[in-house]
Amino acid sequence: MTTAAGTVLVVEDEESIADVLAIALRYHRFEVMTAGTVREALALAEHTLPHARTRSRGGTPIDCALLDVMLPDGDGRALGRELRSRRPELALVFLTARDAPAEVVGALGFGDDYITKPFNIDEVVARVTAVLRRTRPADVLPQRAPLRHGDLELDETTYSVRRAGRSVELTPTEYALLRFLVRNGGRIVPKEQLLRHVWQYEHTPAESTVVETYISYLRRKLDALGPPVITTRRGVGYGLT
What we know:
By secondary structure, this protein is of the alpha/beta class. It has 8 helices and 14 strands.
């Protein structure tokens, strides 16, 4: 028997799209649950997410939720917040409309990735796989010394961040981005390198703004606790002061 790559909850009201996503994900060894509305998704969550930490009773726990932003009975973003409140380590990937990506993505600071419609099904599978690779903790983590840069401290065992002794709440993707910047010290890291190492992109997507988006999320959270710490080299990349 082949071990499943993970369990994905697909919430998409267009049945044909949901079917294609489910077929592709199952082909790549994911277990898949589908829902067409917020109400259906929350009903599934009642039987899975409350027991996710113990992996007992409530069925197979969800590792990733693939959520359409526009649902017939509610907002996929609000649904994502509710699902993550039940399981903080749940990975969230949003499906958004291509005609207004900047407006939608600006409101998704708590998500781990977004995909614009129309999309390539192979890209969806690759992005879900990459998100789970960086957000799912190993079963047993060895004790590691904290990473430090200035007044920043990253605990690689608990995946927690502190600045000037104060806790900073980051999403898994924000944590992965900050960790890569800290590991590179004062170096300016090119955008293409961040896409490869943080988002696991083998090829840089045309006109991708995902790095800029998550840098803005990090700045908002870190700058609230001290002077600006992330520097931009225009046309090149980002680093830490």
